[in-house]
Amino acid sequence: MKIICIGRNYATHIEELENEKPESPIIFLKPDSAILPRKNPFFIPPFSNEVHYEVEVLVKINKVGKHIAAKFAHKYYDEIGLGIDFTARDVQAKCKEKGLPWEKAKAFDGSAVVGEFYAKENFDLENLQFQLIKNKEIVQDGNTNAMLWKIDELIAYISQYFTLKKGDIIYTGTPAGVGKVSENDVLIGKLDGKEAFNIKVK
Ligand code: ZN
Q1: How far is the CA of 69 from the centre of ligand 1 (A)?
Q2: How many domains does the chain have?
Q3: Cβ 80 vs Cβ 125: under 8 Å
Q4: 58 CA distance to ligand 1 centroid (A)?
Q5: Which of 13, 20, 26, 88 could form a disulfide with 7 if both were Cys (CB 3.0 to 4.6 A apart)?
Q6: Residue 146: what pLDDT?
Q7: Using an 8 Å Cβ cutoff, are 148 and 24 in contact?
Q8: Is 133 helix (H, G, I), strand (E, B) or coil?
Q9: 71 alpha carbon to ligand 1 midpoint, in Å?
Q10: Is the pTM of this model over 0.90?
């Protein structure tokens, strides 16, 4: 399986990082080795002094597809979830400065937290609230109604470039409020009020 991530899909997060608003979705990949095993803590990697959390709604692909039209995209997923796209922001800044790919900053071991998945029928996908709670404080509070590209549009766009396969996961971008993690932080993700993950940082 592969993980396809979308960058800059919420205007508020684009503003906080002083990025330009993209004309089309920004795509990058994480390998399956990036997935943080269930129940494991997240260890801050030694090559970074500034790892940021980015809470994101996840979409799990249920069958193979290529050149999927947005109006049929809903047939390609039954479940959605919540996860974290951990980002070594200092490493990413260096890559950006030199115009280099971001993989060292985005695709390292443990950088993909994958929480619980739920049947999509249980939610209003166009108006879905999700939160990241760090040490009991809400640090990110997002709603899918603020996405620049909706889930079905993302699937249509991604599948022009990459064949989507059963089990692939799409990270749909983070809202405002990203920030640094420190040792002993506890990160809890909530999707429509349901606890989707609970991660300890070491
Ligand atoms: Zn992200």
Answers
A1: 24
A2: 1
A3: yes
A4: 11
A5: 26
A6: 94
A7: no
A8: strand
A9: 25
A10: yes
CATH value at residue 32? 3.90.850.10
* d(CA 64, ligand 1 centre) in Å: 24
CA 100-106-111 angle, to 5 degrees, is 165
DSSP secondary structure code for residue 92 in this structure: H
Phi and psi torsions of 139, nearest 5°:
-105, -25
> Taking Cα atoms as reference points, which of 162, 153, 31 lies closest to residue 103?
31
Distance (Å) from CA 85 to ligand 1 centroid: 5
- The predicted structure's pLDDT at residue 147: 95
Strand partners, 142: 130
Distance CA 123, CA 129 (A): 10
Q: CA 118: distance to chain centroid?
A: 16
Residue 53: phi, psi to the nearest 5? -85, 145
Range of the domain at 39: 3-200
Ligand 1 centroid from CA 181, angstroms:
15
Query: Ligand 1: distance of its center to the CA of 158 in Å?
Result: 15
The 10s digit of each residue's pLDDT in 123-139 is 999 999 999 999 999 99
* CA 150 to ligand 1 center in whole angstroms: 15
Q: In what order do the strands lie in the sheet with 129-134?
A: 137-143, 129-134, 186-191, 194-200
C-alpha of residue 172 to centroid of ligand 1, in Å: 7
Cα of 6 vs centre of ligand 1, distance in Å, is 6
